[in-house]
Give the backbone structure.
Amino acid sequence: MSNKAVFIDRDHTLIEDPGYISAPEAVKLLPGVELALKSLSQAGYKIVVVTNQSGIARGLLTEETLEKIHAEMRRQLSEKGAHLDAIYYCPYHPEGTIERYAGESDLRKPQPGMLLQGSRELDIDLSQSWMVGDSPRDIEAGQRAGCRTIRVRVRVSDAPGQVDEESAQADFTVRNLVDAARVILREPTRQPVVSSGLHEAIEHPQPQAQATEAPDEASPVQQEILDRVRKLTAPGKKTETFSLPRMLGALTQVLTLLGVLITFVQMYYGNMRGAIVWAIVSATMQIMTLTLFVAWRRD
Ligand SMILES: [Mg+2]
C-alpha cells in the first residue's frame, strides 16, 4: 500500500530564513512547527523536506556543512517530539562556480525531481500528498508532481481581500505551517489515481480555493493541539471555542426571557406599574443581547 506525504520546503516554511544559512548555529525552528509535524505524522503522513541548496554550487557551503545543518534541524525537532522521514536537497545551479554542481537539474524546484525521487524511495502516492512552501517555485514543483499545494505567506492576513496571482496558483494560501496542517487534516482525501506514471507531470485542474472555515475533520486530539498552537502563535486572535460576548449574550437572553415572564405575572395580578417597569427592563436586556451577539460576530 502506498504512503501519503507532506513535502515541505525548508527556509521560511519550517525554519527561519535569515538570508542564508551556512552554519548549524543559524538553525531556528519557526513557532509551532513541531506540533504541526507531529499531528501530520499521527495522521499517517510521511514528512519529507525538499530544499534547493544552490549555495553548494556557488561555493558558499559544502554538502558536509549542509548535513550538519540538517542534523541540527532534526535534533531540535526531536527534542520537541517531532521527526522528519526524509530530507532531499538540490545542490545544483546553472550559474554554479563549483564545476561538479554547475548545471541544470530536474531536482531543482520548480522541477518536481525531489518529490518524484521521494515518491519512488518512500513508496509515496503523489495524488494523496501535499506540497507546502512559501515560494511560487514550491507550488509549481508540487503541481508538476501531481500533489495538492499550500502556499505559506506571512502577509496573507494583512490583506485578506487581496489575492495576488502567485498565491492564486496554490490550492490554499495560509499564514504558516500550523495552518497548513489544519487544512491538510480537514480536507477529504482524494480518490486514488489508478494509473499515474511517476515521472509524468500530472495535469491538475484543481479549483481555486482559499482556506475557509469548513467543518474540521481532524481528530479531537489533533484539533486541540492545533488550537493551542494557534493561541500561542496568534495571541490576539480568539478561537471559536470561547467568546466572552457570546457567553454574556446567552446570559442576558435568559434574563430577558425571565423579565418577560415576570412582566406577564405582574399584569396577571393587576400591577400595571410593575409590569411596565419589567417590560422596560426586558426590552433593555434584549437590546444588550443583540449588541453582544453583533460584537461576537465581529469578534
Ligand atoms: Mg522557502
User: Anything to note?
Assistant: The CA atoms of residues 73 and 267 lie 74 Å apart. The chain has ten helices and six strands. The pocket of magnesium ion is lined by residues 9, 11-13, 133-135 (CB under 6 Å). The chain has two domains: 4-233, 244-298.
